[in-house]
Amino acid sequence: MDGIEERLAGLGLSLPEAAAPLAAYVPFVRAGDLLHVSGQVSRDADGVIRGVLGGDMDAEAGAKAAQTCALALLAQVKAACEGDWGRLLRVVKLTGFVASAPGFFDQPKVINGASELMIAAVGEIGRHARSAVGVAALPLGAAVEIEGVFLLR
Questions:
Q1: How far apart are CA 41 and CA 19, in angstroms?
Q2: 146 - beta bridge partners?
Q3: Three-state SS for 50?
Q4: Which pLDDT tens digit goes with each residue over 76-107?
Q5: Which of 22, 106, 118, 153 is most buried per CB count within 10 Å?
Q6: All domains of the chain, ordered by start, with CATH?
Q7: What is the pLDDT of residue 16?
Q8: Alpha helices of 54-145 — where are they, by DSSP H?
Q9: 126 and 119 in contact (C-beta within 8 Å)?
């Protein structure tokens, strides 16, 4: 096991299998040194984590859902790098979408679940630019969806 997966294990976490696309797209595209990973919805061992932040889910539960998105993003990065974590140079940007009830404004707190996991898993190269956007609904009723851009060697 390498450093990233050891750090995750130390947090009581592990990478899921890289998910197959749900529609007419690919899980990731490499363009030069940049890897663009398609949006990963919140899911755990029981399936999609559904909910609406500010409705039936609070920001703390949303942050845990966002953490699962970050794990799924890292699983896609591992697949793109054919298991060679040494090819990952930087987490460039995360864009987080949060299913939000009217009047819910804590999207940044929700997406912090993913941002903090990236830093904990990959260290300083995990610090990234970010957007956190509230939306009315997400695919499969997911609470959170996050896409990412990564710099590879």
A1: 10
A2: 40, 96
A3: strand
A4: 999 999 999 999 999 999 999 999 999 999 99
A5: 118
A6: 28-152 (3.30.1330.40)
A7: 96
A8: 59-80, 107-122
A9: yes
* Cα dihedral 148/5/116/41 (nearest 10): 40
Question: What stretches in the chain show pLDDT beneath 50?
Answer: 1
Residue whose pair of structure tokens reads 């987490």 in the numeric block: 91
Tokens of 96: 């987080």
Q: What is the largest CA-CA distance in the chain?
A: 44
Q: Interhelix angle for 59-80 vs 107-122, to 10°? A: 40
Token digits of residue 1: 């096991």
Q: Which two tokens stand for residue 106?
A: 């804590």
